[in-house]
């Protein structure tokens, strides 16, 4: 690894980018057709060996590890048989995984397969010569990648060469969704809010009347983690009028809180916080433990969260509070009354090979190519024991079933390449997937969730280009921007203007305006328009 890369990387503080992914369970026998070069049998001769990063969420079954469990071992057997590649895993804690990856890269001891959701980190590694060129290996051994998820691979390019294989997401779901206690709406004689004014009216009614008759009512529950903007982003963004293509790129999602109109949203949240609407201790709840407790114990009336995190909360809530019912709703109206529902792009994580593993790119691509095959991906995502619904959707094993079989709690963490299965392309298939395991709600509930997810979907313009200013500053700024918002929400109203000025200056000193200026200049070259068009045609 180049010395300049290591030196510069050490000084770069990276923030973990959240991923929201639901664990599932798989089903049928593995395919044997996903081999290197598209042949049906494993290559002859001595097997090649590679190491692959795997997230550890501390949910491995008792007596197992993420490196050694029935699913990991099944994958190893299949890849050896089909591709003549020996795979072994190196676990990395999911929390702070980018920081850990950064440490391994600077130390020159990273696994042969590494990944991140951070485009800034990808840009840092590529610009400093830290990752291997995959262009030739992809051409030789990546037929499944090209055929099944090739339309998103432009995002993994740098200077015209392929430095990352991009993961293909499944159902195109909004990043964050608003959920309201319908039983509390009923108790208040109110409809589920469908506008922002209705939402705010509902929140104040919850504060005043406490329809759940709970000891500690929290109209709007929030946590305080600084690695995700999920708790506020859509609300503040709803105060930003219709975005031009240029502004959509310049501010993207990370910086939408600095766009025209966003300050009105920040002031509204500050008012609600000081009126006791928003969790009073959210800023110190950095683990989100209190937030989850408020939601699952029945104290919360409204949440804005990662789309499917509610799946973890509702069963506990319903066992605690009879009749409690959170429902998804689109209620964060823009100034003109319409909706903007920021949606995950089709591409996900960047899968890379460290420069120190340049000689192993062929073996790595053979492994990733195996994972790109939909049949293999399904068996990894859902485990080889899965069944299917009548609509063809895989049925996830329950937590109890996974534990009994020795599988980890999140099998999908091994499925790092392709999560696009046929069933996600229809409402019936996607809803049947949800209802097959989420028996705590009705099909009507999930039909509504699907409709909320697919209403007014909005994709921010994208480009594979990582700007010099982003490489230099963005990874620091991501967490600083979240802290900026938290400080403005929780300060005293009379201190808002002074707090905003001082906190914003910190961001300026950290390079915020340099990034915004370079993004504006880069947009003017026309490159973003073409990249965005490519993204639009990747369905």
Write the layout of secondary structure elements.
Elements: H1 3-10, E1 48-56, H2 70-83, E2 85-93, H3 97-107, E3 114-116, H4 119-127, H5 135-141, H6 143-149, E4 157-158, E5 161-162, E6 165-168, E7 176-181, H7 182-188, H8 196-209, H9 233-237, H10 245-251, H11 262-274, H12 289-296, E8 302-306, H13 310-320, E9 326-329, E10 341-342, E11 347-352, H14 361-372, H15 374-382, E12 387-388, E13 394-395, H16 399-405, H17 427-437, H18 443-454, E14 457-458, H19 468-490, H20 496-509, H21 512-523, H22 527-536
Parallel strand pairs: 1-2, 10-14
Antiparallel strand pairs: 3-11, 4-5, 6-11, 7-8, 7-9, 12-13
Helix pairs in contact: 1-3, 4-19, 5-6, 5-14, 6-14, 10-21, 11-19, 17-18, 19-20, 19-21
Description of the structure:
This protein is of the alpha+beta class and 539 residues long. It contains 22 helices and 14 strands. The protein has helices at 3-10, 70-83, 97-107, 119-127, 135-141, 143-149, 182-188, 196-209, 233-237, 245-251, 262-274, 289-296, 310-320, 361-372, 374-382, 399-405, 427-437, 443-454, 468-490, 496-509, 512-523, 527-536; strands spanning 48-56, 85-93, 114-116, 157-158, 161-162, 165-168, 176-181, 302-306, 326-329, 341-342, 347-352, 387-388, 394-395, 457-458. It has a three-stranded antiparallel beta sheet with strand order 3-11-6. Helix 4 (119-127) packs antiparallel against helix 19.
